[in-house]
Design brief:
By secondary structure, this protein is α/β, with parallel strands linked by helices. Among the domains are: about 5-200, Rossmann fold, CATH 3.40.50.720; about 220-305, N-(1-d-carboxylethyl)-l-norvaline Dehydrogenase, domain 2. It contains 18 helices and 14 strands. The chain has helices spanning about 15-25, 40-45, 55-65, 75-80, 105-120, 135-145, 165-170, 185-200, 210-245, 245-255, 275-290, 295-320, 350-360, 370-375, 390-395, 410, 415-420, 435-445; strands at about 5-10, 30-35, 70, 85, 125-130, 155, 175-180, 205-210, 330-335, 360-365, 385, 400-405, 425-430, 445-450. The strands form three sheets. Strands 3-2-1-4-5-6 form a six-stranded parallel β-sheet, with helices on both faces. Strands 11-10-9-12-13-14 form a six-stranded parallel β-sheet, with helices on both faces. The mean pLDDT is about 95. Bound molecules: nicotinamide-adenine-dinucleotide.
Length: about 450
């Protein structure tokens, strides 16, 4: 079959693969290929057990794979063959050298830029889908223009706003798609080519076009604003616990103001995931780089409050359980950083489990999707850890439950049955405020929500 366009995604991770899958699904006349340097990941995308758990994704992959969607490890050949290239490689926080712990590590991204240059025999549109520091497109343009003169490259910024757990819906029906380009003749033509792809399934009004630096920066700012709401409500949850107010009531009263809005106002043990912390630290680094220390300090406090909230949670467990956890069994309910994903990157559960182990508690971890990732995260930890998918078996014989992930299934567990199987007095620390606290108290638990008065018998 002759395809109308050929599109390549480099990086078959949580963002690259689902976003390319969506293009393949909506544009059956385009050939879409996803490449990765990790052969296991590509093998998994070509298998029945996809490497990413995302509700609804496997059905779309089944429908498109082999038809107009292909997964491959042959990065170089695919660069040659495709004229529109989405770069979706990872951009983690740097762990070494200048900017360690703050700046984005651009080594994967730069390697890709060089590979594109080396393997291009025809002109290409190169699209930044990874989240990158502002002005990265300029560096990419410099690398790409350092080669042969007969091949030209247009660099676009098209940051991805999808969230894990709701990726399919977010990609199919996004609030907006953002495309930044140079405002030159060829930049605007490249922009139009990308707009054309998205308008295959989205109304034109949902596609925002802008200058390239605004697009790069908007992604960092969007994540910073989302995380900032979480830290704002979490900071107030600490005050509620001191002053007998209820954070859910406060969030409702505040969030019904249409200027504020209700979303992202749920108190809990804090945000996790691969993006929020990394992107805010990247923003903080950029602000310092551009000589704006006050702006940097403002955004850095969002990360500090997130850490404070997790430390508060652990301190509360220790204090409530008579200041010793040594030899006690704690059931960690949920390890994914949020519901409907198996992703555990930067999950608060990692930090909290480490603290429990440091107190010599025995930890039993339960999660419907994230146990393999949890075991990898904790592989080097000393202490007693076990992994039990079934929450009832995980909780049996434990002194406390600590709810870490807002899985829907945890709302509906038979807490009476669980209570019966636990050591008494039994404790329930609800790090996501999803359990029926009053009911669990009546069953017999000592209940410690976030930002609400504890329900205890002591
Ligand atoms: N995960 C999210 O929810 C999310 C949302 C929006 C944006 N982002 C951004 O998207 C980017 C990717 O994130 P992710 O979560 O998909 O990361 P990921 O680690 O899951 O995937 C990145 C993939 O790129 C591959 N890769 C690295 N270098 C390569 C190269 N030279 N050639 C081919 N493949 C290469 C890696 O092997 C890996 O499989 C990041 O910049 C991230 O900030 C992520």
């Amino acid at each position: 079959m002759k395809f109308k366009k050929k599109i390549l995604g480099i990086g078959a991770g949580y963002v690259g693969a689902p976003s390319m899958v969506m293009i393949a699904s909506k544009c059956p006349d385009y050939k879409v290929t996803v490449v990765d340097i990790n052969p296991e990941r590509i093998a998994a995308w070509n298998s029945d057990r996809l490497p990413v758990y995302e509700p609804g994704l496997d059905a779309i992959v089944r429908k498109t794979r082999g038809r107009n969607l292909f997964f491959s490890t042959d990065v170089e050949a695919q660069i040659q063959e495709n004229d529109i290239i989405f770069v979706c490689v990872n951009t983690p926080t740097k762990t070494f050298g200048a900017g360690a712990g703050m700046a984005a590590d651009l080594q994967y991204w730069e390697k890709t830029a060089r590979q594109i240059l080396e393997n291009s025999k025809t002109s290409k549109i190169v699209i930044e889908k990874s989240t990158l520091p502002i002005k990265t497109a300029q560096a990419m343009e410099r690398i790409l223009s350092s080669g042969k003169k007969n091949v030209t490259f247009d660099v676009l910024s098209n940051p991805e706003f999808m969230a894990e757990g709701t990726a399919v819906n977010d990609l199919e029906n996004p609030d907006r798609v953002l495309i930044g380009s140079r405002e030159t003749k060829s930049g605007l033509a490249a922009r139009a080519a990308l707009v054309e792809i998205y308008t295959r399934w989205l109304p034109r009004e949902k596609i925002i076009t802008s200058n390239i630096w605004s697009a790069e920066l908007s992604k960092l700012v969007a994540n910073a604003f989302l995380a900032q709401r979480v830290s704002s409500i979490n900071s107030i949850s600490a005050l509620c616990e001191k002053a007998d107010a209820d954070i859910s009531e406060v969030a409702h009263a505040v969030g019904t103001d249409s200027r504020i809005g209700a979303k992202f106002l749920k108190a809990g043990i804090g945000f996790g995931g691969s993006c929020f912390k990394k992107d805010i630290l990247n923003l903080v680094y950029l602000c310092r780089f551009y000589g704006l220390p006050e702006v940097a300090a403002y955004w850095e406090s969002v990360v500090r409050i997130n850490e404070y909230q997790q430390d508060r949670f652990i301190a509360n467990i220790l204090r409530s359980m008579f200041n010793t956890l040594a030899g006690k069994k704690i059931c960690v309910l949920g390890f994914a950083f949020k519901a409907d994903t198996g992703d555990t990157r930067e999950s608060p559960a990692i930090h909290i489990t480490r603290k429990l182990l440091a107190e010599h508690a025995e930890v039993v971890i339960s999660d419907p999707q994230a146990l393999a990732n949890a075991a990898a995260d904790l592989a080097h930890e000393k202490g007693k850890i076990s992994y039990v998918e079934d929450p009832y078996r995980a909780a049996a014989g434990c002194h406390a439950l600590a709810v870490m992930t807002d899985w829907e299934a945890y709302r509906k567990l038979d807490y009476r049955k669980i209570y019966k199987s636990m050591v008494k007095p039994a404790f329930l620390f609800d790090g996501r405020n999803i359990v029926d606290h009053r009911k669990c108290f009546e069953i017999g638990f000592n209940v410690f929500p976030i930002g609400k008065p504890a329900l205890t018998r002591f």
